[in-house]
Amino acid sequence: MRQCVLTGKRASFGKNVSHAHNKTSKKQSTNIQKKRIYIPEKNKFVRIKVSAHAIRTIEKIGLLLFLKKKGLRLQDIT
């Protein structure tokens, strides 16, 4: 199952409901991307699978600060 290594987001499940109220199962996939992120403090690139929400946050505050807020280390995600 595809999962974001930073936020832990994964697919959710729900129901399609027709006009006649017939219910069928459906899977709602997350927007997971393979992203190559540059870390200026370490002077290197890291390739990770992250959600689109995490990508926007990383672009705002940086990867190392994002990891610190989540209580993770760089070794945990690579």
TrEMBL record:
Gene3D superfamilies: Ribosomal protein L28/L24. InterPro entries: Ribosomal_bL28 (IPR026569), Ribosomal_bL28/bL31-like_sf (IPR034704), Ribosomal_bL28_bact-type (IPR001383), Ribosomal_bL28_sf (IPR037147). GO terms for biological process: translation. It holds the Pfam family Ribosomal_L28. Keywords: Ribonucleoprotein, Ribosomal protein. GO terms for cellular component: ribonucleoprotein complex; ribosome. GO terms for molecular function: structural constituent of ribosome. It comes from the Eukaryota. This is Large ribosomal subunit protein bL28c.
